[in-house]
Every structure is written in C-alpha cells, then in structure tokens.
Amino acid sequence: MTRRGREMVQVPRRVALLLLFCMAALVASDTTDGLLPNGNFEEAPDRSQMDGTRVTGRYAIPRWESCGCVEYICSGQKQGDMVLPVPEGAHAVRLGNEASVRQQLSVTPGTHYAITFSAARTCAQAEKLNVTVGAQSGELPIQTVYTSSGWDSYSWAFEAKDSVVSLTVHNPGYDEDAACGPLVDSFAIKTLLPPQQSNYNMLKNGDFEEGPYICPSTSCGVMVPPMDEDRYSPLSPWMIMSSTKSVRYVDAAHYAVPQGARAVQLVFGAESALVQEVCTVPGLPYKMEFSVGDAADGCTGSLAVEAYAAGGRVTVPYESQGTGGFTRGALEFTATEDRTRVVFVSASYNMKSDGTVCGPVVDDASLVCAQSHARRLLL
Questions:
Q1: Which domain holds residue 161?
Q2: Which pLDDT tens digit goes with each residue over 5-19?
Q3: Which of 126, 130, 230, 341 fits 170 for a cystine, CB–CB 3.0-4.6 Å?
C-alpha cells in the first residue's frame, strides 16, 4: 500500500477512536457507592490529544469531559521548584483559569447524594472550586490547607432532580499563569439515607454515622465545608456555619472515635460551628448529652467544647494526650421557641507538632425532653 493510501486509512481510524472516546464520556455513570468511573484519573488520555501536560481533546480523559486549561499531572511532577502533590495513585488533573471537568451520573430523582473528592492548592493565591449538579451549585473554599500533605478531601451534597445529572467541578479563578489552579483527584459518591428521629433522641444523625464517603486509603478524613442554610448538607441535618472554615469528618479506621464508626472533629476553633435545628415546645425543659474527646492524631492540650441551645450554655473541658479517649458532657435548657438551634463549637485553636490544625472530636449526641423522659421512667 502506498504511503498516501496508509494515511487515508489512518485518518478515519483516528476519527472512529475519537468518536468512541466521546461516546464513552457521554455515558452516565451508575451511582454505586465508591469511586466514580475513572474518578482517580488513572486511565490516561491518548497522547494524540495532549500537548505536553495540557489536555487538548474535550473527551480525551476517559469518562470525563474537560473544558479550558486542563492539565494531566503525574506524581512527582514539578512546576519550578514546587512538586505538584497528587492525592492518590499516580495521576491527577489540574484546573487552570476558568477550567472544568464534568461527568454524567445516573441517579434516582428525590434521593440525596454526597460527592467526595480531593483537592490541593498549587500556585494561585486565593483558590476555590465551584461544584455544580443540575441547577444546584456551591463554592468550596480551599485556601486553607488542613493537612501536612498539601491536599484535603472535601464533600458536597445534592438532591437529584432528574435520573441523569451532570457533575461539574470548575475553577472560577484567574491567574497570570493560566496553568495555576487547584489539583483535583479521587472523585467518589455516596447515597445518603434520610436522617431519622427516634423517641429516645430528638437529634437526627446524632451519632454522625450518616455522612459522605471516606475512601479507605484516605487517612485524613473528609472536610465538610460551610454551607448556606438552604443547601443540603453531607452530614444532614447538621450544618456547618462559618465564612470559610470547614470541619473534619473522621472514621474509626484512622482516628479514635468515641462511639460507632464516624465522628466530627472541630478543627478551627470558634470559626466554624456544628449546628442542627430541632422542633421544641416553649417552656419545656430539655437535656442534651454528648461525647467530647481527641482523635488520637497527636492533638494535645485543652480540647474543650462549648455547647449551647436557647438560653443554655456549657463548656465541657477535655485535656488531651493525643492518644484517644473522651468524656461525656451535658447541657440542660428550657426552650423559648418552637424551633431551637443546637450548636457545638471548639473553645480554642489547636495545632499539632507539624503545624496543621486540629481540635476536639464530637460524637454520640442525644437530646430529650426532660419532662417526657421523666414521665417514661415513671411508667
């Protein structure tokens, strides 16, 4: 076959391969709990659709659609003197100016889901990410680094409105160096069960067992960022009230947890609060009990937690050796409204020896109407 003939055969073959890539990217991913298809970006783009590290083909990354200045980063890769941190495995994606990645998900309308993914800052000064599913959108501040590794895992929740939705993560920032922007990796999903209230606990999800997916290989927990009150929380119905700071969702596989398999660590002092609203009857007495401890992560010193509701307030002290343990606290108050906010906040700022922030663990929270509880005990 002549050279021209071989080239004529290769052109339609390349076109066919590109169409296959496009079709694969457009297929909605099933929502099995865990890593999304190619959620860790270990399936690499074809070299023909890359210019150095930059991805040039819109559907070059298998199962993903990319837009703007998107780079495919290898572990150990440098930018100047800075080593770009890859959260998991050998590859990640960097989102430059106004860049985004998108994947379609097959979901059940009316069901709530939590997305978990890892993010790391690079060379931009004020990095953040926008996460969008359908018409629901939120901003994740990633300026604060909570770990010594340089990257953190974040969560974001949504309610499915359609059977197929698009998950988009977008870097809205602009830097003189178009390549500057956050690294993202390890995208996972989890179906969230509706939180339930019981006769013995007015707080829903008081044990924090229902929350975002924590990758088994992730030893740094998952950050739950601040949120608007009309957004669905990955720790529903708990909300994180703050301007920019997050709390850490931890698991018993990597941390000391007072009860069960999950808990919340308050890692930024009074700058972030854990809040839940409950229905109450004005004039009736209530009692809340909860655990305060340390996560066995080397966070030492005073890890006191303040809890308050209506006119009641209590500080529960806990002196940590950084090796695990907890104490029980209690707060009694009289409701003044038909809805009462229960709030937990760290009473101090704490740091570990490596300079990263840490704080007390809160777990196993329960709330009862003291009058009703006393009546049950008499029966």
A1: 28-192
A2: 444 444 445 444 444
A3: 130
